[in-house]
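User: Here's a chain of 245 residues. Predict its fold as tokens.
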Amino acid sequence: MLATVLYEDGDHRWIMFTRDPGKPDAINNTNHYLVQSGTEAILLDPGSIEMFAPMLSSVLKYVPADNITRIFASRQSPDISSSLGLWDQALPNASLFAPSLWEGFLKHFGMTNIHYKPIPDEGMTMTLGHTQLQFIPAHYLPSPANFHVWDAKAGILMSGDVGTAPEEPGSSHWVDSLDRHIPKMKKYHQRWMPSDAARQDWIRRAKAMDAKILAPQHGRLFKGPQVNEFLNWFEQLPVGVAVHS
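Assistant: Prediction complete.
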């Protein structure tokens, strides 16, 4: 797994893990995140069964297993959650924070040790070490129960599938031109984002945050003025276009 430090201030860090060179071609490439503050750390959307071994070895280069006290799953999708049964064995004392709606589904991945901490539909705030993380509602973008993660101190919004785009191997981790990036994003967002009302609610929340980095689950990240450029583009995009009369 390639590891990139997105933010570091003392013992508060955000690290992205992505683009494992040994990944089978048929498996979607995903971005996974580790947030550390003090002696505590949380894994955000830790990945699939296929990615467990490279994820584990990469993560342990940054924090010892005992410091990973929490895991976050934004929703039930296998590309971000199917490894939970294996993390259950590697981190038996950790807690899983995930939407309350998906508890009965996520437990099918084989969790027997990790304690499930349901996130209510309205979201919640978690204290991690010396900082706070907010689980922000992102329902129907694309899942009916879904959350994003906001770290106001770091200025990073982990945005799940919002901002997703496929990328070629070896491409930059960062969006360099929104105009060139839009063709990669457009079809995905129009097909997978089904609700205009949900999209507008999320846009309102995201614009109020004034994020420095928008960190999606797949593809490149947005930073600086590109965050608002993306939000303005997404706000005007017709979504839910797979339904035809």
